[in-house]
Design a protein that fits this description.
The chain is built from six helices and nine strands; from the N terminus they run E-H-E-H-E-H-E-H-E-H-E-E-H-E-E. By secondary structure, the chain is of the alpha/beta class. It has one domain (7-203): Formyl transferase, N-terminal domain (Rossmann fold). The strands form two sheets. It has a seven-stranded mixed sheet, sandwiched between helices. The chain has a two-stranded antiparallel sheet with strand order 8-9. The structure holds 5-O-phosphono-beta-D-ribofuranosylamine (GRF).
């Protein structure tokens, strides 16, 4: 039976290094997916420039242009439907999606987080691990559920924090790992290798 194509949207608000890592993996034929659109909520974000260079259409949706989060999300959903999006990759998207949005795209929204979840949730995960002098931290790619930085874990890898590390050197290693793990996780999804049972991901 012919597999239905995976139409990917990346949601990002900032620098976009994960966006570029995914674009590169697609170009190098490591993952067979159509990256259809970038959804961005910040007009000045560097990721927009990256998308323009990669010739990926940008959907700019500013929260302040809508009276409520429901209206903001409705506008996004309308675009996702028109582009037939069936997979969403959050890559530094600094907005929390509502439970109803997550339900609509159940197990079709991934996120990358720079820690070994459930440790160090939140926006300052690398800094928090560093400040707490944790012996290690890591990177997690997970499906998104209604909670923040939560949901079935797809891939997770540890990064040791060495005595000689500065915050910058730790960040550098974590981001390098992110750029490897996100394309790997997408590949597992695209090749239908991920089975979810009772909130856990199993590789088949
Ligand atoms: C990454 O560290 C990612 O784990 C987190 O936000 C950051 C986005 O970085 N969710 P970039 O915009 O992809 O460079």
């Amino acid at each position: 039976m012919k597999k239905s194509p995976v139409n990917l949207a990346i949601f990002a608000s900032g620098r976009g290094s994960n966006f570029s890592a995914i674009v590169k993996a697609i170009k190098q034929n490591e993952i067979k997916v159509k990256l259809v659109i970038l959804v961005c909520d910040q007009p000045e974000a560097l990721v927009i420039k990256r998308a323009r260079i990669a010739r990926i259409p940008v959907i700019l949706v500013k929260r302040e242009d809508f009276p409520s989060r429901a209206d903001f999300e409705a506008a996004i959903i309308q675009r996702l439907k028109s582009y037939k999006i069936n997979l969403i990759a959050l890559a530094g998207f600094m907005r929390i999606l509502s439970a109803s949005f997550v339900k609509r795209y159940h197990n079709c929204i991934m996120n990358i987080h720079p820690s070994l979840l459930p440790d160090f949730k939140g926006a300052q995960a690398i800094e928090d691990a560093f400040k707490h002098q944790a012996p290690f931290t890591g990177v997690t790619v997970h499906f998104v559920d209604a909670e923040v930085d939560s949901g079935p874990i797809i891939l997770q890898q540890k990064v040791n924090i060495n005595k000689r590390d500065s915050l910058a050197s730790l960040e550098k290693r974590i981001h390098a790992l992110e750029h490897k793990l996100y394309p790997e996780a997408l590949k597992l999804f695209i090749n239908a290798k991920l089975k979810i049972k009772a909130g856990k991901v199993y590789l088949s």
